[in-house]
């Protein structure tokens, strides 16, 4: 079965290819000094089918009770909810996600948000095990939140976190777009 909206199907377990694709998605995020440009894709790991994609600030942040800017992972979840007519509670997507759902994200999911919005780590944990593994390009730098503990919180909740090696420099270059040179 092809991925929705003409998204590519990548060979299962080709973690570098999925992270490359997430990096391509991240490049669509408008650069700004007060955010990272992150890309993510939600994948059925059994067959390599991409279920949804997202990038930082792709969707408006006007969801009930969550008015701030959207993060890449959040956009993936919103798109799945929209595909299935789930309006009130995005955690209900757990009922429609395939058994082997994994998330690829160019940056470690946030553990806390300065805007007060729900953190991506909380969103993943609240899916109750529907996302089994999170594949990550880089740890979140201390730019906005010092010592992000997203990886540790996910692992404590039973979600496996795997860093995909080899793309860190490219991921950081895209993530820091709009931050100026240091």
Quick summary of this structure?
With 182 residues, the chain is α/β, with parallel strands linked by helices. Helix content is 25%, strand content 16%. A hairpin with a 4-residue loop joins strand 1 and strand 2.
Explain the overall architecture.
With 182 residues, this protein is of the alpha/beta class. Helices cover 25% and strands 16% of the residues. It is built from five helices and five strands; from the N terminus they run H-E-E-H-E-H-E-H-E-H. The protein has helices at 15-26, 72-83, 120-125, 150-156, 168-175, and strands at residues 39-44, 49-55, 101-107, 133-138, 160-163. It has a five-stranded mixed beta sheet, sandwiched between helices. The longest helix has 12 residues, at 15-26. The radius of gyration is 15 Å and the shape is globular. 42% of the residues are buried.
β content, as a range?
Answer: 15-25%
Shape: globular
Mean pLDDT: 89
Question: Biggest β-sheet, characterized?
Answer: 5 strands, mixed
Top keywords for this entry?
25% helix, 5 helices, alpha/beta, 182 residues, five-stranded mixed beta sheet
Can you lay out the helices and strands and say which pair or pack?
Elements: H1 15-26, E1 39-44, E2 49-55, H2 72-83, E3 101-107, H3 120-125, E4 133-138, H4 150-156, E5 160-163, H5 168-175
Parallel strand pairs: 3-4, 4-5
Antiparallel strand pairs: 1-2, 1-3
């Amino acid at each position: 079965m092809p991925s929705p909206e003409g998204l590519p199907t990548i060979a299962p377990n080709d973690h570098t290819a999925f992270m490359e694709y997430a990096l391509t998605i991240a490049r669509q995020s408008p650069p700004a000094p007060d955010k990272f440009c992150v890309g993510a894709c939600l994948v059925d790991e059994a067959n390599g089918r991409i279920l949804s994609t997202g990038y930082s600030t792709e969707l408006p942040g006007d969801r009930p009770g969550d008015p701030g800017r959207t993060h890449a992972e959040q956009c993936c979840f919103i798109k799945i909810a929209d595909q299935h007519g789930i309006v009130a509670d995005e955690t209900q997507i757990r009922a429609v996600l395939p058994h082997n759902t994994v998330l690829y994200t160019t940056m470690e999911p946030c553990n806390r948000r300065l805007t007060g919005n729900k953190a991506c780590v909380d969103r993943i944990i609240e899916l109750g095990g529907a996302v089994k593994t999170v594949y990550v390009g880089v740890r979140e730098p201390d730019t906005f939140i010092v010592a992000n503990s997203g990886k540790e919180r996910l692992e404590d909740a039973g979600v496996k976190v795997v860093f995909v090696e080899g793309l860190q420099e490219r991921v950081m270059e895209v993530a820091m777009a709009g931050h100026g040179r240091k």
